[in-house]
């Protein structure tokens, strides 16, 4: 994982994980990807590198892989 590219500070964006040196959150990048944006569009719109986008994906992957989820509602997640 590209730990050095992602930073977390309770003083910036309420502690959301950010691409280091920016105010661009991992959440923003994942949202764009989920809306169908390409890496090229994300890089152009936010002025990021391939490594920045990959660091967001890696951070999300590692965060989810370490989390245990319990579905107490019995409903499927969309």
What does this 3D model show about the protein?
With 78 residues, the protein is mainly α. It has one domain: Orthogonal Bundle (Arc Repressor Mutant, subunit A), CATH 1.10.10.10. The protein contains three helices and two strands. A two-stranded antiparallel sheet has the order 1-2. Helix 1 (26-34) crosses helix 3 (50-65). The radius of gyration is 14 Å and the shape is globular.
Number of domains: 1
At the first level of CATH, the class is Mainly Alpha
Trace the largest sheet across and list its strands. Answer: 1-2
The main pleated sheet reads as:
2 strands, antiparallel
Write the layout of secondary structure elements.
Layout: E1 6-7, E2 18-19, H1 26-34, H2 39-46, H3 50-65
Antiparallel strand pairs: 1-2
Helix pairs in contact: 1-3
